[in-house]
Amino acid sequence: SSKSTLPYATRAKNHLHPVARRLFDVAEAKKSNVIISADMGTTEELLKLADQLGPYIAVFKTHIDLLSDLSDSTISGLKDLAAKHNFMIFEDRKFIDIGHTVQQQYHDGALRISEFAHVVNASVLAGDGIIEALEQTMAAPNFLYKDERAMLILSEMTTAGSLATGDYTRFCIEIAKKHKKSVIGFVATQALTHFRGSEGGEDEDFVIFTTGVNATTKVDSLGQQYQTPSSAISRGSDFIIVGRGIYAAPNPVAAVKHYQKESWDAYLARTNQ
Ligand code: 5BU
Q1: What angle do CA 237, 192, 116 make, to 5 degrees?
Q2: Measuring CA to CA, how many Å separate 233 from each of 54, 96, 212?
Q3: Over the stretch 83-108, which tens digit does the pLDDT of each residue have?
Q4: Separation between Cα atoms, residue 92 and residue 33, nearest integer Å
């Protein structure tokens, strides 16, 4: 089931997908289930943040299209820092189009997402063709990063009035179950096990990434809604995603350490360790 009481180390051993195994291994090795949402506008700021926070995070989340100066050195800089600090990269691109178009947006194109992002997310508003299209690219015989790429289905959103609820979220679970070669889990505010029939077999272990996390703030002025790190983890999130709570803090390194401790402690409590 998704709200796992198993330690990351056990899930790393058992998971069928190499990207999920690696996520859990990194979390365990660094004692961190924190993802920084690095919503920076320039390469210099992005790489500086990755180098400063790298030791304390499991995953670095990008919106690569926010950069005003994206270039070769952005991509190579990110990849070098990911290796230096042993973190993975999640591009929060939220693919949502016909299969043919998303293949082009994912691979090559201006943003070169397939080159740097271990994990991407996709919306299934248009049905599961989008998942099949991305899976086809990830599994192509000449694809350089085979077994090093995976995706999450965007099954809930944190904004007020989100339409991604109920039957929509249930549909996301059904699609994920059918595409375990490429889908390792969901972007969601909680484990999705409260949906009847969402409990899978022994081999089913969806990873939950949770946005909208902030230790001190409840909302922003544009509809964002937050929960705390310990709330997210206790409700079944496996990795919390924090943007302004960390990078806009007076001292981002002190802030990331605070989030790391709170969410790791919540994980230890959930897994009875
Ligand atoms: P914040 O500064 O922690 O509010 O940033 C949240 C980030 O997570 C930001 O990059 C959003 O685009 C992203 N996000 C979100 O906030 N809510 C969602 O449902 C999804 C992504 Br999906």
Answers
A1: 55
A2: 21, 28, 12
A3: 999 999 999 999 999 999 999 999 98
A4: 17
Residue 1: what pLDDT? 41
Q: What are phi and psi of 258, to 5 degrees?
A: -65, -50
How far does the centroid of ligand 1 lie from the alpha carbon of residue 220, in Å? 11
> Within 13 Å and on the Cβ side, how many CA atoms surround 183?
27
> Which pairing describes strands 88-95 and 59-62: parallel, antiparallel, or unpaired?
parallel
pLDDT band at 204 (very low <50, low <70, confident <90, very high): confident
User: 186: CA distance to ligand 1 center in Å?
Assistant: 14
Determine if residue 159 is labeled as part of a ligand binding site.
Answer: no
Instruction: Kindly tell me if the per-residue pLDDT of 61 is higher than 50.
Output: yes
- Give first-to-last CA distance, the chain, whole Å: 19
- Annotation marks residue 92 as catalytic: yes
Rounded Cα gap, residues 1 and 204, in angstroms: 7
Residue 156's identity, in one-letter code, is E
- Three-class DSSP category at 207: strand
Whether 97 is catalytic is: yes
The pLDDT of residue 2: 46
Structure tokens belonging to residue 232: 């997210």
Kindly report the pTM of this predicted structure: 0.97
3-state SS, residue 91: strand
Structure tokens at 158: 């944190």
DSSP assignment letter at 4: -
